[in-house]
Write a structure and sequence with these properties.
The chain is an alpha/beta fold. It is about 45% helix and about 15% strand. Strands 3-4-2-1-5-6 form a six-stranded parallel β-sheet, sandwiched between helices. The chain is globular and about 60 Å long. It binds 3-methylbut-3-enyl trihydrogen diphosphate (IPE) (2 copies) and magnesium ion (MG).
Length: about 240
């Protein structure tokens, strides 16, 4: 596809409402959301997207009822064990982005193992933001630079952020009908194209992702320049 985003980031929102509408417990929505994520990873790889970053659990999600938080932790541990061999076979390299200090020893070991076992893969970089917040990321990066006595510049800060291993997202999708970032990729979203879908995350399928990619392909990214500057091909030098 022409104008395919190199890096797609997704706020996977709407699992709870998906379940509630069916008179199911919220955790049923999170489980169904996992199926949608599995399909999405595959679809991104098939379309040629090189980096996929998803928001799975925010710094603020700790404020949910304790039983939902523990279900989400269990789901993560369960998904790691079940999904990683398949991701490995499909050429997906997994990275976990977020504050691991708040996670249990068991979950931390699972994350490290998933990263190590997929480290040689190159088809798709898959960043899972878990216990992540954009403000945490910026403050943590600044604190590490300050502790090393390094100057804080745009360049040094960008290099110290948790997503320094990939270019900024080209396209950020949020499902579930809300029009906000909810503390996702605050620094990296500076020039991302934003796309909002009313579909709840468990219902967001390949055709919906294709619609987002098609919408992106029609955008004009100006990065502060004028439309004429970005559409006019540079004049050829006379021989
Ligand atoms: C997103 O779905 C998943 C997480 C935040 C973990 P929600 O759980 O926020 O679903 P809604 O927004 O309540 O429907
Ligand atoms: C954002 O969704 C976080 C994730 C998708 C993991 P939320 O449902 O937590 O966001 P708010 O609270 O509606 O802003
Ligand atoms: Mg939500």
């Amino acid at each position: 596809m022409q104008n395919l985003p190199h890096h797609v980031a997704i706020v996977m929102d709407g699992n709870g409402r998906w379940a509630t509408r069916r008179y199911l417990p919220r955790v049923a929505g999170h489980k169904k959301g996992m199926d949608a994520l599995r399909a999405c990873v595959r679809h991104c790889g098939d379309r040629g997207v090189k980096v996929l970053t998803v928001f799975a659990f925010s710094s603020e999600n700790w404020n949910r009822p304790a039983d939902e938080v523990s279900s989400l932790m269990e789901l993560l541990a369960f998904a790691l064990a079940r999904e990683v061999p398949q991701l490995k076979a499909e050429g997906v390299r997994v990275h976990f982005i977020g504050d691991r200090s708040g996670l249990s020893e068991k979950v931390r070991a699972g994350l490290a193992q998933a990263e190590a076992s997929t480290a040689a893969n190159t088809r798709l970089v898959f960043n899972i933001c878990f216990n992540y917040g954009g403000r945490w990321d910026i403050a943590d990066a600044a604190a590490r630079l300050a502790a090393r006595g390094e100057a804080i510049t745009e360049r040094s800060l960008a290099g110290a952020l948790a997503l320094a291993h990939v270019p900024d997202p080209d396209l950020i999708i949020r499902t579930g009908g809300e029009h906000r970032l909810s503390n996702f990729l605050l620094w990296q979203a500076a020039y991302a194209e934003l796309y909002f879908s009313d579909k709840l995350w468990p219902d967001f399928g390949g055709a919906d992702l294709d619609a987002a990619l098609a919408d992106y392909a029609g955008r004009e990214r100006r990065f502060g320049k004028t439309s004429e500057q970005v559409t006019t091909a540079p004049a050829r030098k006379a021989a």
